[in-house]
Design goal:
It contains 8 helices and 17 strands. The longest helix is centred in the first third of the chain and has 14 residues. The two termini are about 35 Å apart. Bound molecules: ligand PPE. Ligand PPE binds next to helix 6 and strand 14.
Length: about 300
């Protein structure tokens, strides 16, 4: 794999750090920051898109709400108001001088103390924004991803608090993804501790069978904002969406399957564990959702104007 150029630590621009925009290269923290050692931190992934009315952030309020919810679950008190964090995301995006970009808010503990018993640690917030046009090879948007059921189980609901988008949770995702990529696949599908399908390493998952859409229940996946968006689209198309436990072999015999996520957007799954799904290429409903999603985020429809927040 080739590393992105230039390094994320060595770029021009500004990062919002504890209330102010600082030069990108100066947005640093001490190596004894607590989160670096123990993984208790929370983050979000948000996207801004160009629209006919200028750049707009997609579902900013929902992402920011999840950011605060994640922090609450982790017992971290964000030292800014909801409005301040919304404004800061707009501000940092504007400072990126781009029409589109990914926005990454992160809350982490300071370095006042080490150890699991550390108390009263300061909570810091940083927000960066950078262009992230395509998460994976653009041709996969049409060809679909080759996916492997992971040998790693997705977090159990009482092992880590899965409703939180917490830094440390991504150990599990990275183990699963690197195993899949080493095996020549594009992505991993994580199963829950009972063996039912949960989600991708950074995406929710859906299947289509006989015109009905199915997706795992929220007890075994992140409450994805793109997941919710697609479920709204499905209902608008008059399609039923059933949230339930799904087995991996139901995916083998599905007509279509796809992933959803802010970074990934809507991506078809062409095969799972060497079994072609449907025709083995992008299904018609998947393509419809991809189109609807892109039209929505780019403001080419007036269906949900409340989902888009102008950056200025
Ligand atoms: N599940 C997981 C585990 C997950 O990380 C994400 C987002 C989703 C589902 C989809 O959620 P939503 O973005 O609200 O639709 N993953 C973020 C991080 C990706 C990364 O590589 O970093 C994202 O898509 O921004």
């Amino acid at each position: 794999m080739t590393l992105p150029e230039p390094s994320f630590a060595d770029r021009d621009g500004k990062i919002w750090m504890d209330g102010e925009l600082v030069p990108w290269r100066e947005a640093t923290t001490h190596v004894l920051t607590h989160t670096l050692h123990y993984g208790v931190g929370v983050f979000e992934g948000v996207r801004a898109y160009s629209t006919p009315d200028g750049s707009q952030i997609f579902r900013l309020v929902d992402h920011t709400r999840r950011f605060f919810d994640s922090a609450k679950i982790m017992r971290m008190e964000i030292p800014y108001t909801f409005e301040e964090i919304c404004e800061a995301q707009k501000e940092v995006f504007r400072a990126s001088n781009s029409e589109e970009g990914y926005i990454r808010p992160l809350a982490y503990y300071g370095s006042e103390a080490m150890g699991l018993r550390a108390q009263g640690l300061s909570v810091h917030v940083t927000i960066a924004s950078w262009p992230w046009p395509s998460y994976m090879d653009p041709e996969l948007q049409e060809k679909g991803l080759r996916v492997q059921s992971s040998s790693y189980t997705r977090h159990h609901v009482n092992i880590s608090m899965c409703k939180a988008k917490a830094v440390g949770h991504y150990i599990n995702s990275i183990l699963a993804l690197s195993e899949a990529v080493d095996g020549g696949y594009d992505e991993a599908l994580l199963l829950d501790n009972e063996g039912y399908v949960a989600e991708g390493t950074g995406e929710n998952v859906f299947l289509v069978k006989n015109g009905v859409i199915h997706t795992p229940e929220l007890t075994s996946c992140l409450d994805g904002i793109t997941r919710d968006t697609v479920m709204v689209f499905a209902r608008e198309l008059g399609k039923e969406v059933i949230e339930r436990r799904i087995t991996r072999d139901e995916f083998y015999i599905a007509d279509e399957a796809f992933f959803t996520g802010t970074a990934a957007e809507v991506l078809p799954i062409s095969q799972l564990d060497g079994r072609k799904i449907g025709t083995g290429s992008r299904g018609p409903l998947t393509e419809r959702f991809q189109t609807m999603y892109l039209e929505e985020v780019h403001g080419h429809t007036s269906a949900h104007p409340d989902w888009r927040t102008p950056v200025s």
